[in-house]
Design brief:
Bound molecules: NADP nicotinamide-adenine-dinucleotide phosphate
Number of domains: 1
Distance between the termini: 36 Å
Radius of gyration: 17 Å
Oligomer: single chain
Shape: globular
Helix content: 40-55%
Length: 252
Amino acid sequence: MFDLKGKVALVTGGNGGIGLGMARGLAKAGASIFVAARNEEKSAAAVQDLQSLGAEAFAVQVDVSDEKSVGEMVTTIVRQCSSIDILINNAGMNIRKQPQDLPLAQWRQIMDTNLTSAFLCARDVYPHMKRSGSGKIINIGSMLSIFGVSHLPAYGSSKGGLVQLTKSLAVAWAMDNIQVNAVLPGWIDTDLTRTANEKDPTLYERILGRTPAGRWGSIDDLAGVAVFLACRASDFITGTTVVVDGGYSALC
Ligand SMILES: NC(=O)c1ccc[n+]([C@@H]2O[C@H](COP(=O)([O-])OP(=O)(O)OC[C@H]3O[C@@H](n4cnc5c(N)ncnc54)[C@H](OP(=O)(O)O)[C@@H]3O)[C@@H](O)[C@H]2O)c1
């Protein structure tokens, strides 16, 4: 039920952080992985990491905020492997600014990278999943899909939007046997949060004190949920969100 042998997975932003943690889970379950990101050096290292787990792994360069680049990425993968069975829309970024200080260009950059990218990747992968008769799409939201933070208005909007996109795609493609779900990670130790910790020296302890599990998450904490939402065990689960946060969002 949890076996992914013979499946092809595309993980955007899979060259580090949460994307790599999820890719490792899929790789250990037997899937072939395409790591899709901009930084070729980081992607090459991630491919080696996944190959060391015994998986087939490849890098493909993409800017997920660019429609043409996304189209070319999907064509490249399908040319090589003929199908894409699992899509993880994980690539993301943030810019920390109060709403009144956020220029439109930065708002658009965040929305394009975090939200529009997921629509583009899903739209372009869809015909291949439909043709093969099944598919799994996993969108990576955030605690900011639920909560508001004053200095992350565009990030929060993009992550809230991802939950609604998840529901729309799930409803649209349920009859094609394509399941679409979202994962909302809590506070995970990655480059993204390391930068946040540098900018706000009190952040680390505040999160620790507010997380019932008493620790920050590691990228390995995301491996299991990726396998579950990518395998047959979740075939009747679609349009939902799975929170992976050590209890952060359950605490009042
Ligand atoms: N860390 C957390 O606590 C946390 C919590 C909730 C949600 N998340 C979400 O989890 C996802 C991964 O974040 P992370 O924490 O693992 O941060 P990260 O290590 O900075 O990873 C971000 C990834 O996205 C890729 N990326 C960014 N812009 C891209 C673009 N335009 N085109 C292609 N790839 C792009 C980056 O690769 P390149 O730079 O090589 O392109 C990188 O692999 C994000 O969506 C983030 O919002 C993180």
